[in-house]
Design a protein that fits this description.
Length: about 240
């Protein structure tokens, strides 16, 4: 198996992140630094990350967090800001968020040490849907919503077609509530799309990720996924349980 995949399976990081860790020269196979993610490894190899021994498979943990605003979606922050992993601090596993929500975005965020599942859930090839509710400035016209639906060019790249629904308009506050369903996850995509369409986002919440909703979870609270929910995620991205 490729080294990056092995590290992802062992819960070290998502496959993409594992590739970075390898290229940084932090991984050794049988005592020799490996700097290519495609190096092949097996169960008989001794693999270390930063000198720490990595053993095959870790028990998998899947948490659904109702992320509040004010937390960043990385495991560590150089500016000492609060991170989402601090909210799920009682888990021994090395969990990392599946995708990213901006610090000022709230809502559904999955955290897991299942690197292969995380990799697929984030990869645009699998078209996993993410439903956002965005309060935006102004009262978007039908033509503007159609433009957003068809895809907009942002930083030279066209966004994939999206579902965009006007839920409510409040002319007295010069605000509207949009529901936006994306199947890709470019950085700050909702905010960039809305700004490009002339309706900057005032607040943003993710209501649904891959079919999972926060339901009764209070902001900042989390729960373990049920086995049937994990099975459904596996099916969604073509993995066997
Ligand atoms: N799009 C954004 O602009 N921000 C998020 O946090 C998520 C999607």
């Amino acid at each position: 198996m490729r080294l990056a995949k092995y590290l992802a399976r062992a819960g070290v990081a998502s496959r993409r992140r594992a590739e970075i860790i390898i290229s940084e020269g932090r991984v050794a196979v049988n005592g020799i630094t490996a700097d290519k993610p495609q190096v092949l490894v097996g169960d008989n190899d001794t693999i270390t990350v930063d000198g720490r021994l990595i053993s095959g498979e870790e028990e998998k943990v899947y948490l659904l967090l109702n992320k509040p605003q004010g937390y960043i979606s990385t495991t560590t922050d150089t500016h000492d800001r609060p991170t989402v992993t601090e909210l799920v601090g009682d888990s021994d596993a090395r969990l990392y968020p599946v995708g990213r929500l901006d610090a000022d975005t709230s809502g559904v965020l999955l955290l897991t040490n299942d690197g292969e599942l995380a990799h697929r859930l984030m990869h645009p090839r699998y078209g996993v849907s993410k439903v956002y509710r965005a309060w935006v400035k102004g009262l978007p016209q039908k033509e503007t919503l159609d433009l957003m639906r068809g895809g907009l060019v942002i930083e030279g790249e066209k966004t994939a077609p999206a579902k965009v629904k006007l839920i409510r308009s409040e002319p007295e506050n010069d605000s509207s509530l949009l529901e936006i369903v994306l199947t890709e996850g470019k950085k700050r995509q909702v905010k960039n799309m809305c700004a490009e369409a002339g309706h900057p986002v005032k607040s943003l919440r993710r209501d649904n990720f891959a079919g999972l909703r926060a339901g009764k979870l209070e902001k900042g609270a989390y729960r373990h996924l049920k086995q049937r929910e994990i099975d459904a995620l596996y099916r969604l991205v073509g993995l066997q349980t």
